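Good morning C.,

I know you're traveling, so I'll keep this short. The sequence:
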Amino acid sequence: MKKIEMVDHTRLEQLLMDGYVVVGPVLHLSRIRPEAIDKMGTKTLIMLRHPSTGHRVKMLTSDERAIERAKNQRHYQEEPIGTLVHIICVALRGRSLKHRVFHLDQLVTSLNGYSGWEFRLGDVVGTFEVDIRIESTDRAEAEKAVDSLQTLLDYLSVLLQVGFHIQHCHYALIPRFGPTILADPEETMLPLITTDEIDTTAATVSSDLTKATAGGLNKAYIGCTMPSRLSMLWAAVEHVFRVKPEQLLTNDEVENLLTYAEGIESLESNIERLEKLKKVYLDFDEETKDPKEEILEKIKETLLDPNRLSLINRNKRMAYAIAPIMDISVQDAYSKVRTASQLRGKHLHQLSTEDSEKLEASEEFLQEALLQYLAQQKETLKV
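The tokens, ready to paste straight into the viewer:
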């Protein structure tokens, strides 16, 4: 037995030296065919293949050294030595609304090889695929490569006046030997729709608010970036869950404040402070004979405007309306509404690639608020 075992171990080493690789897992026969134990004994199957010739070798052995060597070889072969980034891009629309379908044959041919990347046409008109190989397993390095591709897409948009969008991105580790496993975008078969379902939805989406809800959801679904989707959802949520604001101060309280302010001589004597107040109220009349009176009038307008100075701020008013529909606390709703508002404002006024996880969470929250509102309206019809 020892002599046979030595032969198996020596043979395996020779095959590996000749360029063969271990293919498939190293498995005990009992895990493959339990009924074979009586005939074969307690043996383990080792499969090898030569990458160049395709020749295969099958070994059945009880040699623990050979088995352990095969397992170690398999682990060595599977060890990642780099990263393959597989990206699908799409040309969405151009500067002119007439330009909606783009054939990319010439463009992709000219791009292939740029920065060492592999470009090829996608399966769908207007799409192309990019493979970027990186000699690192660090995810951060792979993400830098995606950023570089996004920069290239921005360059192309300037040159061609066409908008390009990264539709799908997948990171796959490259093993020392063997294929790299890539994942394409998830495909979904949409279910059939009955006439009754359409009629029920039509009855639900019949008021101005429910129409705004459906329209907002649809526009958000077709948005290509999270900030744009969030902005669409926010517009719909703010419209649907709008609550009329109340004044913070009563009319009498405002009059009392203004009466007191009229006695502040420094408003009239301090030119620098007057100028600052003028900048606050853009419609200040430069030719007025009484600057202090004009300023006090503008202050009065501000104090009496519930949209500018309300008893309860906009986000909290929306939270009070959303909380019962989503069956969550007002505090929880307010926290999520405030976060969505901050993110929407931030990405409305600056270009940023930050906050992806927060944006996704806010997008999901606003979507759910609108969907729950529609569900509530549907239930109302049954009553």
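Safe travels,
E.
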